[in-house]
Amino acid sequence: MHLLRIKFMIIELRKFGTTLISRQTGKEAFLAFQPALEKVKKDELVEVDFDGVLTFSPSWGDEFLTPLLERYGEKLILKRSENPSVNATIEILEESLGKKFNVE
């Protein structure tokens, strides 16, 4: 029996801080992460992990998550979070973009 191996690139947002609120810092974080994104292979999924993030605003999320969604589409997975700030921001972004994130 052959087991399918799914490869992931995991983006731990806490590396950018615990309070992710401004549009400017979201844009800077996305730009700073570009070299790592260049290493994502075509068969890899990209997972965003919100563990350790206390505050996550729609402005920061729009600058970081929206370009990821545009680039990776269904290959982008947002790790399920218990944080109300994260969940509210994802809902706001989905509504404003007219697109759904893959949350698992």
Number of helices, counting only DSSP H or I runs of 4 residues or more:
3
What fraction of residues sit in β-strands?
Answer: 15-25%
* Largest sheet features: 4 strands, parallel
Q: What average pLDDT do the residues reach? A: 93
What pattern of helices and strands is seen along the backbone?
EEHEEHEHE
What does this 3D model show about the protein?
The chain has 104 residues and is α/β, with parallel strands linked by helices. The protein has one domain (7-103). 42% of the residues lie in helices and 20% in strands. The protein has 3 helices and 6 strands. It has helices at residues 23-37, 58-72, 84-97, and strands at residues 7-12, 19-20, 44-49, 55-56, 76-78, 102-103. The strands form 2 sheets. Strands 1-3-5-6 form a 4-stranded parallel sheet. Strands 2-4 form a two-stranded parallel sheet. Strand 5, helix 3 (84-97) and strand 6 form a beta-alpha-beta unit. Helix 1 runs parallel beside helix 2 (58-72). The longest helix is centred in the first third of the chain and has 15 residues, at 23-37. It is globular, with a radius of gyration of 14 Å. The chain starts with 6 loop residues before the first strand and ends with a strand. The model has no long low-confidence stretch (mean pLDDT 93).
